[in-house]
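Notes from the 1:1 (GR / supervisor)

We went over the backlog. Supervisor wanted to see one worked example end to end before approving the batch request, so GR pasted a single chain during the call. The sequence is below; no edits were made to it. Supervisor asked that the structure be written out right there so they could see what the output format looks like.
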Amino acid sequence: MAANPNLPDFPDIPPRRPKDDHAKLQLVKQGKFPWPIVAFIIGLVILAAILFYLAFPSNNRKPGAGTVPAQPTGQQIQLSDIRMTLGPVGGALYVEALLHNAGSSEIIGVRLQGEFLGKNGQSLEMENGSLQAVTRAGGAEDLTQAPIKPNESRAVRIYFDHMPQGWNRQPPQLRILSVSGTTP
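Structure output shown during the call:
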């Protein structure tokens, strides 16, 4: 067997390229608008707006759950010159007094409780009453219509719709249940 130095000739093999022939590189076409850069800039603007909002709070926002404005208390109310007048019908009683607002907010409502005592000083009954301002004509008006300003005194009236049997006819002991007012 002898080796043939000539290689067989295969007709379907493509010819070799010369050394100076380079293959062409095909580029993938991309959109001309830079969307990632635009999205990054929009994100920065939103972050800056949030930081600005948190750094400089608005003055017209309502207080949060942890912030409660100062409310008027029973200590800012002082009652003096207490007098009683029996009502024209039934067992009603009017207690009239001079109320002084010693606080820093206007008073627009007061709820009181009157304790009626018996002849031996025992407690007979407790009754709730609302306080109203006395007008110059002798009538009464609600404190929401005529608030008592800070450091102001005004004649007021408390209405109790009945008196208990065995009451000692002395003014009832008054306890302030609630005070409502406007904040300064």
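Supervisor's comment: The longest strand covers residues 123-134.
Batch request approved.
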